[in-house]
Predict the structure.
Amino acid sequence: MQDDKSLIVPFFKAIAVPQPAASKEAGRPIFKDMEVVEVRIAGDRNFAPTFPAHAPWKRDENGDDVTYAERFPEAYARFAEGREQVADGTPLSELTFLTESKRATLRSLKVYTAEALASIDGKKLNSLGPDAREMKDAATAYLTTAAGTAGTWALTAEIEALKAQMAEMTGVAQASKGEPDDANEKESIKAQINELTGSRPRGNPSVETLREMLADMKQVA
């Protein structure tokens, strides 16, 4: 069973709130923008309470208010930066045992991740349909397998990072040795051939070919 936090998906948005007193005074409709959060619960189609984003959610051990924006800091940051708001976890698109229609049905029931599908239970699980238990078990198995291979993924990423670092160090070392730059050498050889023959080589011969041409010309000269 996953942590119940995976069943909760916060969705922040800005709404226009009517200002009756200001509207009456101005003689026209007046609205004020307010940031709110819609708290979506996996498996519950009809229950999604909405709260002001900066209203107190609870008090911490020091007696200080914790707002909804502070309760869901990553989701609020995505909203504030104008980025797409997504549920934290493994998206349903990664679950290959689901058809696209099943994914659409799950999203309509506010189940957006493998973690939520593995965590849902009771009446909310039954609301997913007759094959809900099979989907839940498959999601649980997927997450268990993924957890078992996490070390392998981390090791592979570390090896790739070391390879990239070694390649960069090798490039720096070669540059420090002053190895000839092909483009500069080509230009130098072409200039020498031009002095000997009165014309530059045509096309784009390799530096090895140019070296051979220059050597042959010097022997003839």
